[in-house]
């Protein structure tokens, strides 16, 4: 290798260390070879180009597959940019060049730059994962949870709510943590557009209400399916406080148990405890499960919670419960239907009874609940 060639390769390295990024590498490449060149991600999105307005066959590049070394007419030479074992971008050069040394070096430098930025991003994701896991499992509650969530950009409240998305695939947790997903955000130093982490080897996104959650969920599934055709994504409901955020996560996690894209059903405490008895804040979830009823009772003076507890204590016999409540059986039936409408679970079904039984026994004691019913409370 001549001195001049070594100097030019060194100039490409300095373009990165001086903060010029991939565009700086391409500028040196253009000066040395006179060839137009560009970095394009594997979805055909332009990352950097010199000249900036040079035409590139972006549609053709979307069809690139490993082993293909040139595409388009006239043919453009392709040099893969590999990160964590995946080809994430291509260096595209026009026209075909006889000496490929500079281009291989440029693609290697792009790999080093992306790896550096990705290492910073992975650290942020790991920190976010620790905070989210503590909130989801009830180890961090109340004001402490709010403060910790705010450090990673999540501030639920009256003005903003969030939905939790859970993506599941055969990719390992380490691969999910390291995968860049969005090279534009990575190169711009913005990192992930949403709080992203891995919890129990699932990919978790926390998306604010201002953004199109269904579209984002579909894009997440598309990314996961690129590596695993049977991948799944569960979408939790919009929520506005830390405990509800944990509930949204567990609902999304349950929805992600089936391949494809699924929106969460109302949380059922029974099935949740069967799968995660040691990892959920049972007391807080019990309170939230009854909250639609307690709020309704406080606002209207009704007795939905007391009627529900009495119905459960009467072995779900409407006649016996109505007698104990001193109301007509039709009145109790109306209240039970209202409970189903407000919560999404009917006390007349097995799933609903299991859900409400846990809610009234393991949550904070609701109005009208007897001491005997709460002897087994956690906490």
Structure description:
Helix content is 50%, strand content 15%. With 379 residues, the chain is an alpha+beta fold. The strands form 2 sheets. The chain has a 5-stranded antiparallel beta sheet.
What's the total helix number? 15
CATH topology grouping of the largest domain: Alpha-Beta Plaits
Label the structural class: alpha+beta
Residue runs with pLDDT of under 50 for 5 or more positions: 364-379
Report the sheet with the most strands, covering strand number, pairing sense and barrel closure.
5 strands, antiparallel
- CATH C-level name of the largest domain: Alpha Beta
The average pLDDT value, as a whole number, equals: 82
- Total strands: the figure is 10
- How many domain regions? 3
Q: Looking across the biggest beta sheet, what order are the strands in?
A: 2-1-5-4-3
Percentage of residues in helical conformation = 40-55%
Rg: 28 Å
Overall body shape = elongated
Strand content: 5-15%
Distance between the termini: 72 Å
Can you write the helix and strand succession as a string? Answer: HHEEHEEEHHEHHEEHEHEHHHHHH
- The CATH architecture category of the largest domain equals 2-Layer Sandwich
Which keywords apply here?
379 residues; Beta-Lactamase; Alpha-Beta Plaits; Arc Repressor Mutant, subunit A; 3 domains; 15 helices; 10 strands; disordered C terminus
Structure summarized in a few sentences:
The protein is an alpha+beta fold. The chain is built from 15 helices and 10 strands.
Write the layout of secondary structure elements.
Blueprint: H1 3-17, H2 21-33, E1 37-41, E2 46-50, H3 58-61, E3 70-71, E4 76-83, E5 86-93, H4 101-136, H5 142-150, E6 162-168, H6 173-178, H7 183-187, E7 195-199, E8 202-208, H8 213-225, E9 232-235, H9 242-255, E10 260-263, H10 269-276, H11 282-300, H12 304-313, H13 318-325, H14 329-343, H15 350-362
Parallel strand pairs: 9-10
Antiparallel strand pairs: 1-2, 1-5, 3-4, 4-5, 6-8, 6-9, 7-8
Helix pairs in contact: 1-2, 1-4, 2-4, 11-15, 12-13, 13-14
């Amino acid at each position: 290798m001549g001195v001049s060639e070594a100097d030019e390769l060194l100039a490409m390295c300095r373009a990165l260390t001086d903060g010029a990024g991939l565009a700086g590498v391409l500028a040196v490449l253009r000066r040395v070879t006179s060839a137009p060149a560009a970095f394009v991600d594997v979805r055909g999105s332009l990352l950097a180009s010199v000249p900036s307005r040079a035409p590139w066959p972006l549609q053709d590049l979307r069809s690139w597959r490993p082993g293909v070394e040139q595409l388009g007419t006239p043919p453009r030479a392709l040099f893969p940019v590999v990160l964590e074992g995946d080809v994430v971008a291509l260096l595209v050069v026009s026209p075909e060049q006889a000496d490929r040394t500079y281009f291989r070096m440029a693609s290697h430098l792009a790999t080093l730059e992306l790896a550096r930025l990705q290492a910073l991003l992975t650290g942020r994701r790991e920190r976010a994962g620790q905070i989210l896991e503590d909130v989801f499992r009830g180890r961090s509650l109340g004001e402490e949870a709010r403060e910790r969530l705010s450090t990673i950009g999540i501030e639920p409240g009256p003005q903003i709510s969030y939905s939790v998305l859970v993506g599941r695939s055969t990719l390992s947790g380490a691969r999910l943590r390291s995968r860049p997903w969005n090279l534009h955000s990575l190169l711009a130093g913005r990192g992930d557009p949403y709080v992203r982490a891995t919890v129990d080897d699932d990919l978790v996104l926390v998306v604010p209400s201002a953004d199109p959650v269904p579209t984002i969920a579909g894009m997440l599934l598309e990314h996961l399916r690129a590596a695993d055709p049977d991948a799944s994504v569960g979408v939790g409901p919009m929520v506005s406080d830390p405990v509800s955020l944990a509930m949204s996560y567990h609902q999304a996690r349950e929805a992600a148990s089936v391949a494809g894209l699924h929106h969460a059903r109302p949380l059922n405490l029974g099935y949740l405890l069967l799968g995660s008895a040691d990892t959920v804040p049972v007391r807080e979830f019990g309170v939230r499960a009854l909250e639609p009823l307690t709020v309704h009772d406080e606002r209207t003076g009704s007795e939905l919670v007391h009627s529900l507890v009495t119905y459960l204590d009467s072995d779900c016999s409407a006649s016996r419960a109505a007698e104990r409540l001193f109301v007509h059986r039709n009145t109790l039936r109306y209240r039970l239907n209202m409970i189903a409408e407000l919560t999404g679970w009917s006390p007349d079904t097995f799933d609903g009874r299991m859900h409400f039984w846990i809610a009234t026994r393991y949550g904070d004691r609701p109005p009208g609940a007897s001491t005997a019913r709460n002897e087994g409370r956690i906490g």
